[in-house]
Amino acid sequence: MPPGKKLHASGEDYLEAVLVIQKKKGMVRSVDVSRHMEVSKPSVCHAVATLRDGGFLTMDSDYFLHLTDVGREVAEQIYEKHRFFTEMLINAGVDPITAERDACRIEHVISESSFQRLKKTLTEKK
Fold first, then answer.
1. What Pfam families does the entry give (predicted)?
2. What is the pLDDT along the chain (126 residues), one digit of tens a residue?
């Protein structure tokens, strides 16, 4: 992420949601994000405005959301961590619902260097 561009965990969650919906449906509107994240439309509206002001996403004239290059980079990194930790926890015997919830917390607090080291170590053991 470029210097001066700081996101909170909730902002990362919104970017991840836009990415996931975009992969599934192709186009993303605020209402899709609201349903996906199970949050209110006003919450999405506020988050979209904040992320747009930060340069992480844009909204076109038809109200479709689009990740900027920076937004896509952040979303892809978060989504990769989410999938990785969910899979590791499920493989360790954690039930899928708990694994999803815990992975969502872990993805925000682990440093990129620790994540890459962990991923490399586990990949080499396979």
1. Fe_dep_repr_C, Fe_dep_repress
2. 444 567 888 999 999 999 999 999 999 999 999 999 999 999 999 999 999 999 999 999 999 999 999 999 999 999 999 999 999 999 999 999 999 999 999 999 999 999 999 999 988 876
At a CB cut-off of 8 Å and minimum separation 6, what does 108 contact? 9, 12, 78
Q: Do residues 40 and 25 touch, judged by C-beta distance below 8 A?
A: no
- The answer to whether 16 and 73 have CB atoms below 8 angstroms apart is no
| CA torsion, ordered 95, 100, 106, 112, to nearest 10 deg | 120
Query: Backbone phi, then psi, for 71, in 5-degree steps?
Result: -60, -40
pTM of the prediction? 0.88
